[in-house]
Write a structure and sequence with these properties.
This protein is an alpha/beta fold. It has helices at residues 36-48, 104-107, 122-125, 128-142, 144-168, 175-215, 237-250, 252-258, 279-282, 285-307, 324-334, 349-354, and strands at residues 2-11, 14-20, 25-29, 67-76, 79-88, 91-96, 99-100, 113-116, 221-226, 269-274, 277-278, 312-316, 340-344, 359-364, 367-371. The strands form three sheets. It has a six-stranded antiparallel β-sheet, covered by helices on one side. It has a six-stranded mixed β-sheet with strand order 8-12-13-3-14-15, sandwiched between helices. Strand 1 and strand 2 form a beta hairpin. The protein is globular, with a radius of gyration of 22 Å. It starts with a strand and ends with a strand.
Length: 374
């Protein structure tokens, strides 16, 4: 899978631009605040219908414009796919081959992307919410059922938390309704946890191999799912539903007192272990960065296994955050395998030596100019 053409209209600082890309490596060069990251963001938004940088649609629109359009042509094994996303202050419209999609969840997954930015190094040492977001964004791309269950779960969670606050303030007294919401939440929560465990198991196998290669077999990487309920591994969906439902029943007074839902996948976390020691707590900065790199590269292989095609890789100024050995491993891993978009202020000598025949774009003030690679 690769993005052959991209057209932007009124997106960030791009008023009107049309580009064609290499199926291999595309390098976006320019000074800070010129639009390199905005271009990567547009590709991400085209795939995911949402930005990784902001939750405000208004920020994605060129100043004083009412809407923005992102269009792309995707080359897949089964042929070309035309994608279009229209952003406005009123919402979003997504089209596949000129046909508007009834739900955004039907659209997501047509184009698979993996973003690796400096902040992704916080995947290991950051807060649990960072890892949950990582899981939900990546697994949601490859499994529409996961995305559907997650959407339903979030809707019911919001309703349940609102009702718990009403019970807390004595504005509501109907515990039967709380039971209904708990039952619905447990059903979707069980599906989410089961699918997380399945995908994390596969991701772990790929990440272990990559970590071994980077560290010359000195470090064995493993994952541990940390659930807010009791032990969840090797449990069926029905068993997970029962455990969640029981957790809600046993702790209803506690949840009413705090006015929020204390159990479920929205409270879960993943621990990364190197040689059975928690790398978040005990790992060096180098180990934490290697782990983050291994997990991100493992995503590429997981998506290939699940979708039959390699995803598109977006590297936003991440090379500057990696030392020579990790840069080398990253670039050798993706060469001739994954279409890659790489932003950088300038190409270092090590990068030039490792990238074969890149297509280089120079960006300045929202203008994009193709330049010769030599």
């Amino acid at each position: 899978m690769y993005l052959s053409e991209l057209a932007l209209k009124n997106f960030r600082n791009y008023e009107d631009v049309e580009l064609s890309f290499s199926p291999k490596i595309n390098v976006l060069i320019g000074e800070n605040a010129q639009g390199k990251t905005n271009l990567l963001e547009a590709i991400y938004v085209l795939a995911m219908t949402r930005s990784h940088r902001t939750s405000s649609e208004r920020e994605l629109l060129t100043f004083k414009k009412e809407n923005a359009t992102i269009r792309g042509t995707i080359e897949r094994k089964l042929g070309k796919l035309k994608l279009e996303l229209i952003l406005s202050k009123k919402g979003k419209k997504a089209k596949v081959n000129h046909l508007e999609q009834a739900r955004l969840s039907q659209y997501v997954g047509q184009m698979n992307v993996i973003l690796f930015a400096p902040e992704d190094l916080a995947l290991v040492k950051g807060a649990p919410a960072v890892r949950r977001r990582f899981i939900d964004m990546e697994f949601g791309q490859i499994d529409p059922h996961y995305l559907h269950n997650l959407s339903q779960y979030r809707t019911i969670l919001k309703q349940r938390n609102k009702y718990l606050k009403q019970l807390q303030s004595k504005k509501a007294v109907d515990l039967v309704l709380l039971g209904v919401l708990s039952d619905q939440l447990a059903a979707f929560g069980a599906e989410i946890i089961a699918r997380r465990l399945k995908f994390l198991d596969k991701l772990e196998k790929y990440a272990q191999e990559i970590q071994n290669n980077i560290t010359q077999s000195k470090e064995n990487l493993s994952f541990e799912y940390e659930a807010s309920i009791s032990e969840v591994s090797e449990k069926s969906v029905d068993e997970l539903y029962g455990v969640l439902r029981q957790s809600f029943a046993d702790n209803s007074k506690k949840e009413i007192f705090q006015g929020t839902t204390l159990y479920g996948p929205h409270r879960d976390d993943v621990r990364f272990l190197i040689n059975m020691r928690n790398v978040q707590t005990y790992g060096s900065q180098g180990q934490q960065r290697t782990t983050a790199l291994s997990v991100k590269l493992a995503e590429i292989e997981l998506m290939k296994e699940e979708t039959g095609e390699y995803p598109i890789l977006l590297l936003d100024d991440v090379l500057s955050e990696l030392d020579g050995d990790r840069q080398t491993h990253l670039l050798k891993t993706i060469q001739d395998k994954v279409q890659t978009f790489l932003t950088t202020p300038s190409l270092s000598e090590i990068t030039r030596q490792l990238i074969d025949d890149p297509k280089i774009f120079r960006i300045a003030q929202g203008k994009v100019e193709l330049q010769k690679s030599n």
